[in-house]
Structure formats: C-alpha cells, structure tokens
C-alpha cells in the first residue's frame, strides 16, 4: 500500500481513502479532515462542478487561501476531469484579469462562492461521511475522467519575458514526481508535512501536496507564514516533514520562541537554499535529514534532489542527483554535453511540462528538437553525478522563494509619466535572499520625491513582492554603456550599490 498506487490524483485518493478512511489527511485553519472525508467532499464537489457545466479538460480556477477548501478544490476539480488553475491571491485586479483572459476557466472557486459547490448540504467542509458515503465516493474517484496524460495543473510563472508563462503539468507527471521526491526524502508511513508557503506555487500544488497524498501522509498547512505561529503549529501538530525556503528557515531559527518550542519531531523535507541555510535547518531546527534540490515549475518543482541518507556536507553543498522521472544534462554554449566538473547550461527532459500554453514561439525557444528543455540555468555535475547549481543565466530575481521577472516590473515602471527608462535587478540581502532593486531614468531633479512616488504608484498596480525595495533615480548620461552602446545592467547595479546614490 505504501507508496500508494495510482497514476492520477483521483485514483490515489480513492486508494488511500478505501484503505485508511480514518487517517487524517488535511489539518488547516478552516478545518481538519480524514482521507475518507476528503474523498467524499471531492466527489461531491466534482458533481457540483459538472452540474455547473464543467467538462473534462475544462479549467477550474482556485482563488482561495491555503487550507482544506483549497485541497478539496484541487482534488474535486481533478475528480471532474478538469485541469486545476491555481490563482495567485496576491495578484492585483489587472494581473488577475490578464491570467483569466488567457486561461479561460469554466469556473473559478472563491471564498464567496465555494460553499455553493459543496456536497448535498451545500457545504463541503461540514459534510458528514458514513462508510457507504466513502465507498460511493471512492467508486466515483476511480471512474473519474482523468487520465495519466491529461492536464492536472496550469500554473502561471514569471519568466525572462514581461508576460508570465502558462505552464501545463500532467496527472501522471504530478503523481510520479511526488513519489520520487518522497522516496529521496525518506518519507514514512504516518508522516506529517508542514507547509506554510502559498499552495498556488509549484512548491505546494505539484510537490508538497501530492507528495503527502501519494504517501498517505498528513498535510498540515497554514494559511500564511508567521514565525511564532509556525513554531507553535509545528509543535502542536507534531510535524515531521519540513517544506521551507531560505527566508523561512532563517526566520524560524532566529525567532526567540524556538528556545521553548519543541520542534524535535521534524526529520526530513526540502529546504532549497545556500549551504549556510541547510546548516541552519539541520543544526538549529533539527531537520537532520533535510534535502537540497534543484528544480523549476516546468519540471514539477524538483528535477534533482539529494537523498535523506546523504552525509550533511553533500546535502549542504549539492543539489543531488536527477530524479528517476527526469533526465538532466549540462551542455556548453554550442549545445554539446559538457564533461563532469564543467559549468554549462542545465537542460531537462522526461516528466516535465508538455509545453507552454498557446505559445509556439516560447516552445520553439525552450525545447530543442530532441525534447530537451532549456532551463536558462547554469550548473555542473561532479564525478558522483550530483548537480551543483551555479545560478541563472538570465536575470531572474528570487525573493522569499518567489521568482520575479525584471522585465515584467520594468514594463510597469516605464508607464509612470516621469520615468523614461527602468532597469530592475536583484540586490542581495544580509539573510541571503534578494530584494528587488530598480534604477529609474528621469529628467527630474527631485530624485527622492520621484523614487517614493513611483514605489507607491507601483504598489497599487502589482503584487507587493514585485515592488522595488531599493530604488535609485539617475539621468540618462549617468548610465554605463557597453562597447556596443547598450546599457550594462551589471555595471549599473554595481555603480549604484557602490556609490550609494
């Protein structure tokens, strides 16, 4: 029974619910539910979605906070044969409208309309379950019109262009990758996952959640991350599997409550970060078997990962070996494979996205004729076949575990009436994270006034995490140029950080 059989989430949910109906599946602020209860609620939601006109292969949007409703919403959409569209709840109206226009969901589940799509009583969360209810729900899930190659998720992620990329992921890919990740982490029967990052990102919806599901584990999910509340929650729920990023790890380790909270149940998980961040997770938080990984949305979040049994120095300094579900290679600028120890471009193939939604030009640029996906990242393999991630070959900013496209932010900033040009880049912080930095080019003499005004203006138009935290105003003649006459963003970044202008 362990790991759970099945190649789609409805099949896996039916298998766990039939074998362990009373095992707790979800613990959240909006409720707790066993596998049997989630199976009944997902089947009931699927029926209501179909009654609302949802057909197999349609898209169902999830514009919900982290919690039980989010999990049931995803699994109910899958049980109806639909592709789930996790929506970023931090979007401003214009950003949300743009995504909805491209994705065209048949239905969008929100906190306001969710209960109307519930079970017989119209409330998914409070629906009571009998043994017969669970048996009937499991039969519904087993016969769900969702196949291994059908789409399970459509995720919008910032890329190197201004417009977010729409990344489809399949049922089979989602399930197989989750099994492989859990095996590397050493997930055990009875484990309890802690997760407090947004479920709408790949790290949640195509990694932590299906990982817990395919291993019959409990997903303990918080609506948002706050260090003191997280430490109390981990202690109370006796969580064993840690899903965190560098800022989360450092915030938990630095919080005074850690001294009197018992988080010793934490054992394994993933904490993608620098060697120092992995050391903090292992030594200060006690996540002794925590793993390091490399991945991106197009590869279900993880393409390589260390093993929980690797020595700590291996887990701190490498991103591990490729998962059995994927191939990973390093190539030079000419596209030929690079030898071990040589830094080159990371490419992946196998259980990855079948291609961007309605974007033939993006797909041509991203995929080679032999099916290898060009990640845009740099790395190298050591003699043991472990990946060492070097960095991004393009200028993506990663802040608090979230990818931010400089081009997307620049495209907005130049819309301000007094901004002639904008150059956006990452600025390293003392915690090892990145802030969004921006140089605004303007003819005004009121540099301090414009910098503050543009930041306030941007905050009303884009998600808060994309708003520049460090802003400088220069005139055009102060911009450093390359020999070909182009502005050098690298030199510009060094110039403003060194001068402190």
From TrEMBL:
InterPro entries: AMP-bd_C (IPR025110), AMP-bd_C_sf (IPR045851), AMP-dep_synth/lig_dom (IPR000873), ANL_N_sf (IPR042099). The keyword Ligase applies. SUPFAM superfamilies: Acetyl-CoA synthetase-like. Residues 408-486 form the AMP-binding enzyme C-terminal domain. Residues 15-357 form the AMP-dependent synthetase/ligase domain. Keywords: Ligase. Belongs to the ATP-dependent AMP-binding enzyme family. This is AMP-binding protein. The lineage of its organism: Bacteria, Bacillati, Actinomycetota, Actinomycetes, Sporichthyales.
